[in-house]
Write a structure and sequence with these properties.
Structural class: alpha/beta
Strand order of the largest sheet: 2-3-4-5-6-7-8-9
Low-confidence stretches: 146-152
CATH superfamily: Aldolase class I
Distance between the termini: 26 Å
Number of domains: 1
CATH class: Alpha Beta
Helix content: 40-55%
CATH topology: TIM Barrel
C-alpha cells in the first residue's frame, strides 16, 4: 500500500517508534526490504539517493519502487533521499514519490531556507511530504563505493533554536538532525548527543526528527534515539554489507569445479539483506 511521508510519520508518532528507511539502488535490495516489512507486518520507507544515480537511474528504479509499494501488504512510503537539486526533486515527484528529502545542508543557511521552501511548494502540488537537513553529519553518503565513516571536522551539530526558525520558515514535515552520527561504516564508536533531538522536538512542536548514519549504532543507542523523538531512521551501509558478505560466503562454499551462477549469488545476497533489515526494523520499533 503506497502511503505518504506524512502518513507514515504520523503512525510512528502515535506509536512512539521509528520507521526504518532503507535505500534500494537495485532490485534485490528492494525485494529484500519489502519482504522484511511484510514478514514483520511493519510499515516501511523505501528510498533512493541521488548519489546512487551512477548505479541505476532514478528513471529506471523509481517506477519499480512505486509499483512494489502499491502491491505491498504493508504501508510503504517511496522517498527520495538526499536530493541535491530542485530539478532532481521534481523528477522524483513527477514519478510519484510520496516523500522527498532536499539536502542543502552544505549551502549557506539562507539558501537552504529559500530552496527548501520551494521544495515544500513543489511537494504540496503532489501531496508529498518533505524532509530537510540542518547541521551536517560530515562526509555525505557516497555512490562510488566509498563507505568510510571516519570522523572528520566538517560535522556541525544541529542548533535547536535555528531549527525552530527553519521549521517555521519552511513548513517541512521532518528534519534530519546532526547529533553525532556519520554516514558509512563507523571506525570509532559514535559520540551521540541525544539532547539535540529532544531540544529540537521541544522547540518545533514535536516535529519528527530523522536520524541519518544509522548503520553501526548500538541497539541501546537506537532505543534512546527513538525515545528522544527520532521517528525515521536511515539505514543502508550494513544492509548492503550483509549482502556482499553473503555473496562471498556463497561463492566460497562452492566446490572448485562447480559452476558460478550470478542469479544464485543475488539470491544469497537478497536473503541476507532481508534478515539484516528485519533486525533493524525490530530495533527501530522497540520490539527487541
Amino acid at each position: 500500500m503506497l502511503v505518504t511521508l506524512q502518513w507514515i510519520l504520523k503512525k510512528a508518532e502515535e506509536q512512539n517508534i521509528a520507521i526504518g528507511a532503507f535505500n534500494t539502488p537495485n532490485l534485490e535490495s528492494l525485494q529484500a526490504i519489502i519482504c522484511a516489512a511484510e514478514e514483520l507486518q511493519l510499515p516501511v520507507i523505501i528510498q533512493f539517493a541521488q548519489c546512487h544515480e551512477s548505479w541505476i537511474p532514478l528513471s529506471v528504479i523509481g517506477p519499480m519502487m512505486i509499483e512494489a509499494a502499491r502491491k505491498a501488504a504493508v504501508p510503504v512510503c517511496v522517498h527520495l533521499d538526499h536530493g541535491e537539486t530542485l530539478e532532481y526533486v521534481q523528477q522524483a515527484l513527477d514519478l510519484g514519490f510520496t516523500g522527498v528529502m532536499y539536502d542543502a545542508s552544505t549551502l549557506p543557511y539562507e539558501v537552504n531556507v529559500a530552496n527548501t521552501k520551494k521544495v515544500v511548494e513543489m511537494a504540496a502540488m503532489k501531496g508529498a511530504g518533505v524532509e530537510a537537513e540542518l547541521g551536517s553529519m560530515g562526509r555525505r553518503e557516497s555512490g562510488n563505493g566509498d563507505h568510510s565513516g571516519a570522523e572528520d571536522e566538517t560535522k556541525i551539530y544541529t542548533d535547536a533554536l535555528q531549527a525552530k526558525e527553519f521549521v517555521r520558515d519552511t513548513g517541512v514535515d521532518a528534519l534530519a538532525c546532526s547529533f553525532g552520527t556519520t554516514h558509512g561504516i563507523y571506525l570509532t564508536e559514535p559520540r551521540l548527543d541525544f539532547s539535540v533531538v529532544s531540544n529540537v522536538r521541544s522547540l518545533t512542536g514535536n516535529l519528527p526528527v530523522v536520524m541519518h548514519g544509522g548503520s553501526g549504532v548500538s541497539k541501546e543507542d537506537f532505543h534512546t534515539a527513538v525515545r528522544s523523538g527520532v521517528r525515521k531512521i536511515n539505514y543502508f551501509t550494513y544492509m548492503d554489507k550483509s549482502g556482499g558478505t553473503a555473496a562471498e560466503e556463497y561463492l566460497k562454499g562452492l566446490q572448485k569445479n562447480e559452476p558460478r551462477f550470478f542469479s544464485e549469488v543475488l539470491a544469497a545476497a537478497r536473503e541476507a539483506m532481508k534478515e539484516n533489515v528485519k533486525g533493524a526494523m525490530r530495533t527501530f520499533a522497540l520490539m527487541d
